[in-house]
Amino acid sequence: MSALRQRAAQLARQARTTRPAAVRNTRSYGSSHGHEEHGHNVEEPLGASFYITAAAVVGSIFVYKISRPDENGEVSAVHKYFAKLADYGKEWETKNHLMTAALTQAAHDKHLLLGAERSKHHELRFPEVFSTGSPFNVPAGHYANMDAVVAHYRKQHLDDEERKAKRLAAASQ
Q: What distance in Å separates the CA atoms of residue 130 and residue 146, rounded to the nearest whole number?
């Protein structure tokens, strides 16, 4: 096997060194070096840049024509469209300004209310609010005596009723 491998390597070296120059790839340019007399003329297209330039010229002339006012002096549709876009931007600017002002005022009010001192007095509408807890599993003596609280609110209620009655009597005369 070794002899075969050595012989293959020798043949590869010989093929590399004895390669003829004519076998190498050479490029030929058919449209160059004056070969026109042999019928090798190549028709080259105009290319994309020509068509883009032509379209730009025609397009700019079209835009110019439609942007000019008509013979009556009325502005064109393009001008009206851009004016509408400008008004739309001003409308959004006004809305954004009003929204920002509202959010700023809301933040100011929030900080004002959170920073204000709170009243410790809570007006009770009914005296049963003190005993709204569960009546089960309450150890003896854990409910406070509410008789004084009930008497206070009963007196306040009677005073309010008396004041209302006096006001109605004065209004009926």
A: 8
φ and ψ at 45, to 5 degrees? Answer: -75, 165
Which residue in 112, 109, 146 sits closest to 127, CA to CA? 146
Domains in the chain: boundaries: 47-115
How distant is the alpha carbon of residue 158 from its chain centre?
62
Residue 153 in contact with residue 128, Cβ under 8 Å? Answer: no
Q: At what angle do helices 77-115 and 48-67 cross, to 10 degrees?
A: 80
CA distance 67 to 95: 31
Both structure tokens of 61: 């002339």
Contact 146, 127 (CB under 8 A): yes
Over the stretch 98-151, which tens digit does the pLDDT of each residue have?
999 999 999 999 998 888 887 777 677 776 776 677 767 767 777 677 788 889
